[in-house]
């Protein structure tokens, strides 16, 4: 059973039939094989006879043919005009593109020809060339509709019709982009020229969203999208990065027009002139510029706009139930965008939340920080009792922040985060203490690689640090900045541009530290090198000193595993004689183990003494008889002397 023709195809057929009748009856032009492929004598005579001002067909003959079909044309136009108020794909598209009736008529003719080979043969006859089966500008001019495809027409602004750019103006063809043809035939596949990473959220086809430009800034991307949904509820949207070329811009405008979608551009940088012009040109659409920072005014397209500021959107209980079907985990502070990513990762895996959160953070931190999965505990940390109590208080401060800030409503000034300063000589346990605290909290420790963070290029250090803090906030990680005075050092007097920029970096770091809600540990050898502004932000400050004799005895004892072949070690002597850090002790025990393994014997005092010699050499420290006593001769032998057995 044949389907009922659409009003727009009926109008196209009537107009094309009228022009064919004019050619056949008024001009007396018969159909010809190979029309337009060559020009013969008869062709030349006929062409000369049809040129304006010569002996062309009489005006009355053309008028008579047009009058013959005028009622059919008027009836088809009326039917199309009435149908544009309906819900057909063509009608909704015309309203979405804000087409005038004349422009809708042009779209009807171009689309109908594009979709039917029979019409293409008819057009080739009207245009007297088998090489021109698509409607030309001359034919549109002939039916009085060429303005519908002018460069500034709605059809062109909405990217619904393409016009050739080469050859004589009259023979330039008007074609339908493939995506429009698929849409009119019922296929909703996305345009293949859309920018990579574009996501469509389709809605029930209805009236197009209210046009205009909305600037949404602040918060995370998912929270900004929620603000868009609040502005245009139950509307589809096209979320995409900024198009990178003319084809991508055209596909974006066309896709949004076809689907009646709100275009949400996710901006990583302000729009350039191309983008501003593209948005201003496609003013029939609803546009959203979504960005974390506010956009500079000079980068906003020259159209009326409104602005919405989004607060940092930490995911609430409703968000957790929608994404994961569970109550929020108090161990993680995720914004809505991070929760969406974690939910997707958990669904792709085994549904376990913790690996998904670690993966979220780790992917951004790898390369600028080293992950340390805590393995050592309080028993491995030998520090003075008061230092141990401070470390436990530090862990409690981070663990109980929900109670203090949320339940008891203490003001989180400047944030709910905790900053600790570990100061002391190298090897006194600062890194170990950070690992133990992270283990107590069940968190991963990320030791920031300063060489990968600090850059000589302007702005790069801030970008690296923003990447670190943003990823750490997602996973509720412990950030450990070793040798922190390299980043958090005192601001210098400004003597040149480099000094000025270094001070800007320090100011940025302080600002970012004050807005971070996690746990940060700053480690330094000298506390006095830390800028006073950072010291005011410190929650806990611990001075790590060289261990006393009792602590050194415990470190020496625990540095030798129970399974190690130890013989005749004088731990009392080692603890009493060598006032060294725990790090040096651990290095010495390991060095002694390798010496003994090479000798094929148990670990003896001679091996330990020789290992201490190497540690002193690394430090540039003198070996004295007072310290080494009976082992002094051993450690001062020439390098060629036989090794101890």
UniProtKB/TrEMBL annotation:
Stored Pfam families: AAA (PF00004)
Domain (AAA+ ATPase) ranges: 416-548
UniProt entry tagged with the keyword Nucleotide-binding: yes
InterPro entries: 26S_Proteasome_ATPase, AAA+_ATPase, ATPase_AAA_core, P-loop_NTPase
Keyword terms: ATP-binding, Nucleotide-binding
Domain of life of the source: Bacteria
Family: Belongs to the AAA ATPase family.
Protein name: AAA+ ATPase domain-containing protein
Organism in which the protein naturally occurs: Phytohabitans aurantiacus
């Amino acid at each position: 059973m044949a389907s009922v023709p659409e009003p727009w195809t009926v109008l196209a057929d009537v107009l094309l039939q009228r022009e064919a009748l004019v050619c056949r009856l008024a001009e007396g032009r018969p159909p010809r094989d190979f029309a337009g492929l060559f020009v013969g004598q008869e062709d030349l005579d006929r062409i000369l006879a049809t040129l304006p001002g010569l002996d062309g067909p009489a005006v009355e003959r053309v008028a008579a043919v047009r009058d013959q079909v005028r009622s059919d044309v008027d009836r088809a136009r009326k039917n199309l005009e009435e149908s544009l108020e309906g819900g057909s794909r063509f009608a909704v598209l015309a309203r979405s593109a804000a087409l005038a009736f004349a422009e809708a008529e042009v779209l009807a003719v171009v689309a109908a020809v594009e979709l039917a080979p029979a019409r293409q043969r008819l057009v080739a006859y009207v245009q007297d060339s088998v090489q021109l089966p698509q409607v030309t500008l001359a034919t549109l001019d002939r039916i009085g509709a060429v303005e519908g495809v002018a460069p500034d027409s709605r059809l062109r602004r909405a990217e619904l019709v393409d016009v050739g750019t080469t050859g004589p103006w009259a023979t330039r063809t008007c074609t339908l982009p493939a995506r429009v043809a698929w849409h009119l035939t019922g296929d909703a596949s996305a345009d293949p020229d859309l920018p990579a990473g574009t996501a469509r959220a389709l809605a029930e086809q209805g009236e197009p969203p209210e046009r205009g430009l909305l600037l949404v800034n602040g918060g995370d991307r998912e929270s900004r999208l929620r603000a868009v949904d609040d502005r245009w509820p139950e509307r589809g949207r096209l979320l995409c990065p900024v198009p990178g070329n003319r084809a991508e811009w055209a596909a974006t405008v066309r896709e949004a027009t076809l689907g009646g979608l709100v275009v949400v551009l996710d901006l990583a940088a302000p729009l350039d002139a191309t983008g501003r012009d593209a948005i201003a040109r496609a003013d029939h659409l609803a546009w959203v510029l979504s960005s974390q920072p506010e956009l500079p005014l000079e980068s906003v397209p020259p159209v009326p706009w409104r602005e919405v500021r989004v607060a940092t959107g930490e995911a609430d209980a409703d968000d957790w139930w929608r994404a994961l079907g569970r109550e929020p985990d108090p161990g993680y502070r995720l914004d809505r965008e991070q929760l969406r990513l974690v939910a997707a990762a958990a669904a792709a895996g085994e549904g376990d939340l913790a690996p998904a959160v670690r993966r979220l953070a780790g992917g951004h931190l790898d390369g600028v920080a080293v992950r340390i999965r805590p393995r050592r505990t309080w028993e491995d940390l030998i520090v003075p009792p008061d230092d141990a109590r401070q470390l436990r208080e530090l862990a409690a401060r981070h663990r109980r922040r929900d109670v203090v800030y949320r339940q008891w409503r203490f003001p989180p000034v400047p944030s709910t985060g905790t900053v600790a300063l570990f100061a002391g000589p190298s090897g006194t346990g600062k890194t170990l203490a950070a690992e133990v605290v992270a283990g107590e909290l069940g968190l991963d420790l990320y030791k920031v690689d300063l060489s990968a963070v600090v850059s000589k290029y302007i702005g790069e250090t801030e970008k690296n640090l923003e990447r670190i803090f943003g990823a750490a906030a997602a996973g509720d990680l412990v950030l450990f900045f070793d040798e922190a005075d390299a980043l958090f050092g005192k601001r210098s007097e400004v003597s040149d541009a480099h000094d000025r920029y270094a001070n800007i970096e320090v100011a940025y770091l302080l600002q970012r530290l004050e807005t971070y809600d996690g746990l940060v540990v700053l480690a330094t050898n000298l506390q006095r090198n830390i800028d006073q502004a950072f010291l005011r932000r410190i929650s806990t400050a611990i001075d790590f000193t060289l261990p006393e004799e009792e602590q050194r005895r415990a470190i020496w004892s625990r540095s030798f595993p129970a399974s190690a072949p130890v013989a005749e070690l004088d731990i009392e002597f080692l603890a009493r004689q060598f006032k060294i850090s725990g790090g040096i002790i651990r290095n010495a025990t390991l060095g002694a183990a390798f010496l003994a393994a090479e000798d094929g014997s148990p670990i003896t005092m001679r091996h330990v003494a020789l290992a201490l010699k190497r540690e002193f050499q690394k430090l540039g420290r003198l070996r004295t008889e007072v310290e080494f006593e009976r082992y002094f001769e051993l450690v001062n032998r020439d390098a060629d002397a036989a090794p101890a057995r």
